[in-house]
């Protein structure tokens, strides 16, 4: 198949600064792709890299797009190197969109193309603000229907975060599931303390809600430490940064990880290869956002609906970090 290829870079400012162990994030940048095939079907894709998480940089993605001709083929798309995982996802997703298999419209049907579908069978996890702000803002997300929350740790001194955690678990409703995300920012001793605290609260029946897992407690290079910790405590550990790309995902599985894998479709790489891996190994997955627009989110949710197991909430409760995007996407649509 041959495609007319167009692309546009974008910049979106967060409503509130996002703070993680990797630092502060104020502006989300990416690239919107448009592929028009020989039958004039239009497919939309998005490249939303996060270089500090393991993908290519935005400049590398832009350089790749700039060197492509105006007409590309399936061979071009399916030969994108593994060093450009966000590009792999964006271009393959645009192919799938344009194939019509998702039931979305084509150009001229803007109302249907930029509306994220309601994947009603998938529970969502809402991202709480860091620090003490979580104590005041969880209720808004609760009223919106969220019953699973993620809270970032490893951002402040551990003693202070444990104090906030103690307040948070006694503030949230008992039916809540809470995920603690360290973004690889804990030492081995700090990770032990967090896991021991969660286990101890549960053992003493002092935990009114469920701590679903601690996400990526140690840095990517400390895989063996996380493997050891996963076998030492009842509180589950989920890998995130360690499995940012398909290559890393396969490597951790081969090294014996059978716990939870947090998959960010926007940067993991080829959707077709991801499907094959998940279906072959039946891994325990949590699909999660990379703060993409509705275009990449649509494609990511398609994968989540196909591949999610164990009824785990997907990490796409991030709409409150941006202004409404429909008008913004509409203008970009018209530009392309």
CATH class of the largest domain: Alpha Beta
The name of the CATH architecture of the largest domain is: Alpha-Beta Barrel
Radius of gyration: 20 Å
Largest sheet: 8 strands, parallel
What does this structure look like?
With 336 residues, the protein is of the alpha/beta class. It has two domains: 2-115 and 325-335, Enolase-like, N-terminal domain (Enolase-like, domain 1, 2-Layer Sandwich), CATH 3.30.390; 124-321, Enolase-like C-terminal domain (TIM Barrel, Alpha-Beta Barrel). The protein contains 13 helices and twelve strands. The protein has an eight-stranded parallel beta sheet. A four-stranded antiparallel beta sheet has the order 3-2-1-4, sandwiched between helices. Helix 6 (158-169) links the parallel strand 6 (148-152) and strand 7. The two termini are 21 Å apart. The relative contact order is 0.15. The model is unreliable at 105-116 (pLDDT under 50).
């Amino acid at each position: 198949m041959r495609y007319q290829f167009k692309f546009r870079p974008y910049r979106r400012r967060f409503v509130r600064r996002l703070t993680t162990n990797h630092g502060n994030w104020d502006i989300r940048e990416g690239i919107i792709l448009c592929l028009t095939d020989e039958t004039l079907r239009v497919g939309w894709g998005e490249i939303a890299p996060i270089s500090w998480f393991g993908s290519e940089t935005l400049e590398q993605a832009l350089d790749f797009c700039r060197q492509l001709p105006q007409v590309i083929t399936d061979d071009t798309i399916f030969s994108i190197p593994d060093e450009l995982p966000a590009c792999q996802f964006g271009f393959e997703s645009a192919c799938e969109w344009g194939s019509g298999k998702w039931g979305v419209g084509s150009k001229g049907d803007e109302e249907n193309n930029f509306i994220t579908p309601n994947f009603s069978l998938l529970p969502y996890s809402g991202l709480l603000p860091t620090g003490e702000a979580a104590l005041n803002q969880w209720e808004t997300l609760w009223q919106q229907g969220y019953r699973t929350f993620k809270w970032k740790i490893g951002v402040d001194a551990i003693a202070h975060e444990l104090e906030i955690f103690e307040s948070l678990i006694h503030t949230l409703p008992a039916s809540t599931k809470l995920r603690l995300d360290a973004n690889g920012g804990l030492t081995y001793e700090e990770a032990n303390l967090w896991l021991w605290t969660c286990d101890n609260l549960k053992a003493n029946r002092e935990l009114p809600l469920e701590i679903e897992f601690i996400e990526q407690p140690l840095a990517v290079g400390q895989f063996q430490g996380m493997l050891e910790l996963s076998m030492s405590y009842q509180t589950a550990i989920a890998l995130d940064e360690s499995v940012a790309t398909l290559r890393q995902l396969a490597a951790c599985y081969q090294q014996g990880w059978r716990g939870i894998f947090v998959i960010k479709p926007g940067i993991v790489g080829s959707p077709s290869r991801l499907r094959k891996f998940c279906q072959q190994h039946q891994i325990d997955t949590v699909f999660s956002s990379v703060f993409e627009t509705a275009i990449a989110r649509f494609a990511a949710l398609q994968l989540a609906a196909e591949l999610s197991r164990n009824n785990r909430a997907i990490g796409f409760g991030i709409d409150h970090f941006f202004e409404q995007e429909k008008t913004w996407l509409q203008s970009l649509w018209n530009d392309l």
